[in-house]
Amino acid sequence: MSTPSSAALPRWVVLGGLVLVAANLRTLMTSLPPLAETVRADLGLSNTAMGVLTTLPVLCMGLLAPAANQVSRRLGPRTAVGVGAALVTAGVVLRGLGPGTVPTLYLGTLVAGAGIAVAGTLLPGVVKSVFPAHRSGFGTGLTMVAMMGLAGVASATAVPLARLLGGWPSSLLFWGLLALAGLLAWLPVVRAERRDRPAADVPDGSHALPWRSTTAWALAGFLAGQSWQFYSSLAWLAPTYEARGWSAGAAGVLMAVFTAVQLLSGLLAPTLLDRVRDPRVLLLTATGLSALGELGVAIAPDLAPWLWALLLGAGQGACFALGLGLLVRFAVTSRDSARLTAMAFLVSYTLASVGPAATGALRDLTGSATAVWTLLLVVAVPQTLSALRLRADAPRVGEEPRPATVRA
User: Taking burial as the number of CB atoms within 10 A of a residue's CB, which of 191, 197, 237, 256 is the most buried?
Assistant: First the structure.
């Protein structure tokens, strides 16, 4: 069912805002790793402490996913996305303010992470309300292109921006401009929803998270493995090669390859999802590509680093895009998609948030990156087992029977 705002605004306005909001959901994380060694040296932080900077937004995306669902219930989904975009803008600006102190760095990351949690949780439901069922994969791919494309740009330009603007705080602050553009582009969508939304929405049990759904648990397990690997790779790919003698600029370009290749896999995979009946074929292929990249970095990092980055990006980008696509496919309505997304993100991102800090601690303990990439290979095993359960005829969220004792 379309929301009122979709009727009140031209579709291109909603799509334009959707793309710009999505473009801000990864730059917070990808703009930091190429600068990590400089930040760590300037502020006297350990590898574990640097890993926490990646952990914070991921943990927010997990713990605050149910809260995003409740904000959507109270304000409307598109207004709630606007709240998320505003928090991202405030957090990115705060992170880059001041002389690069530890409090502003962590507090800004936390605030922006909360915004990413709200907006990211609700976007699959917005996609489902904008695109017809047979085009939902394309809609997912469109948001992926924006998300990963700008993530790649943020990685590639982090070091040049630091040189141009006078330091790493200004490089991080630069991305506040994109966040502000996303917020401004989404404001017409918010105004339309606030104007046209019925005065009284009657809450019902359909907002409850689908804890009884085996499909929801399988999706949560798949996304947990993917997210653990992605955010750990994001945190440690550039530092791994800097420790092997690469310059910060070269490591930033390698990171850009890792993230930019997700443009292709992130658009192609969900588009194929519209055409392939059994999603497990795509899920297992994407997981295998990622595992090959991790194996390469673990046992032969200098043999073909650009190939390893390509395999990592292609596999992990496709896994994430397929996961988002299935959050739409395995839900009956856009509200059910929001419920499914909230539960899947709560479980997956909460588990995955341990990844960057844990791998940082492992690196501090062993003094080597080999153990980090070996651990990521191990994480691919439960991800594969979860993927095997996501068959084409798996029950969708919204079809499960509700307990008779539940009251609105």
Answer: 237
pLDDT along the chain (408 residues), means of 10: 50 86 90 86 82 82 87 88 95 81 88 93 81 69 82 86 92 95 93 68 61 94 93 86 88 84 84 87 96 95 95 93 88 84 89 81 85 92 96 85 47
Give the closest residue to 205 by CA, choosing from 63, 400, 344: 400
End-to-end distance of the chain based on CA atoms, in angstroms? 21
Residue with tokens 């809609």: 139
- What residues form DSSP beta bridges with 331? 397
Separation CA 44–CA 401 (nearest Å): 54
The DSSP symbol for 293 reads H
Which of 257, 239, 256 is CA-nearest to residue 248? 239
Helical pair 102-130 and 334-352, crossing angle rounded to 10 deg: 150
Other beta carbons less than 10 A from residue 32's beta carbon: 25
Q: Which residues contact 254 (CB under 8 A, 6 or more apart)?
A: 237, 238, 241, 246, 305, 306, 309
Cα–Cα distance, 23 to 21 (Å, whole number): 5
Helix (H, G, I), strand (E, B) or coil at 331: strand
DSSP string, 243-254: TTT--HHHHHHH
Q: How far apart are CA 39 and CA 33, in angstroms?
A: 9
Name the residue among 271, 39, 251 with its Cα closest to residue 138.
271
Nearest to 82 by CA among 207, 7, 189, 175: 189
Q: Which residue has the tokens 């009284």?
A: 200
CA dihedral 68, 72, 73, 74 (to 10 degrees): 100
- Alpha carbon distance 276, 278 (integer Å): 6
Q: How far is CA 45 from the centre of its chain?
A: 25
Give the separation between CA 281 and CA 296, rounded to whole angstroms. Answer: 23
Q: Is the dihedral of CA 63, 69, 71, 74 positive or negative?
A: negative
